[in-house]
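User: Predict the complex.
Assistant: Input components as received:
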Amino acid sequence: MNIESGLKIGALARLAGTTAPTIRYYEQIGLLPRPVRPAGHQRRYDTADVQRLTFIRRCRDFDFSIDHVRELVSLLGDPSSDCKAVQDIGQSQLDIVRAKLLELRSLEKMLAEFVDRCAKSCTGGPSSRCRPLAKLARSGPVKPTRRDPRHESLVPSQSRHTKR
Amino acid sequence: MNIESGLKIGALARLAGTTAPTIRYYEQIGLLPRPVRPAGHQRRYDTADVQRLTFIRRCRDFDFSIDHVRELVSLLGDPSSDCKAVQDIGQSQLDIVRAKLLELRSLEKMLAEFVDRCAKSCTGGPSSRCRPLAKLARSGPVKPTRRDPRHESLVPSQSRHTKR
DNA sequence: GATACAACTTAAAGTCACTTGAGGTTCAAG
DNA sequence: CTTGAACCTCAAGTGACTTTAAGTTGTATC
């Protein structure tokens, strides 16, 4: 039974949709505050931590950098920040999210069409004659040719560093 | 003038929409074959290389992993392989994109509500009463206090290279 | 032919945001 | 009191490049 009230790190991880090592990492880089550690050495969390971490996890799921998330989180939690600045930064983050939504919808459309063409024209034949696949190799960019990453726009369409 | 016909690495990079270091990296991991090197030490490419690299770059734009791309490339070159496998890879990628779309819409809603609350409750001035979404960060602002030395050199205090 | 300079070469280290591993400690159940 | 899951720290590994350092080649101009 839990006499010391509060969530252990595993419970927090489950509730926020992440993992215990990730939580420790966030604490290490200062993205999460150091939690209380009653009795033994183990960290204990509360529902506020669940909400904060869930917010962070969502931002990370959409490729906001740790620095961006740090900015957003501290902005949301700082009562002394100028309200107008809070609103402005929130709005610009919203603009970025909306731009990403547009990009992602376009990517979904392209992929859906690709799979659809596959289903229709490639009924089990050899893949060397897979026309949708071959089409990818023909010249002319599907989207504007990728720029030098150093000049990448504010809103990259895809992260090149995501893992799966 | 180019007596030795063939593209140099920079020209290939421009035509395929990527960079020279990336091409060398792909060669190193065996995603691209080692090209001819007539005369001096420099790599020379032809139009087949442009097509192959364009294909690879486009797959990466679709956020396929390097392993997925490797699979697709060998599928494309193997006359005995099944077109259905190509479709499966595309479909699983589509599933991932659709899941991301759902999450991104949820994030957009959170941010839009935040900005909306800002606009309504914070009518200018240094508002100590501005606490929209306070429940997300009730335990106070997260300060990038003492961090792991590894990360310290990267981000001194403000984001220098705001990559995203 | 000399010279300047961009574009090329390699190898190695750096980057981001975790993830995994090794080796040990704590805690609730049986 | 023992078992075993869950916790702890610290270090090293991962993916997909990117950057850096230090040297070489190719071409255009004088």
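Helices of chain A lie at 9-16, 20-28, 47-61, 66-77, 83-121, 131-137.
Let me know if you want any component modeled separately.
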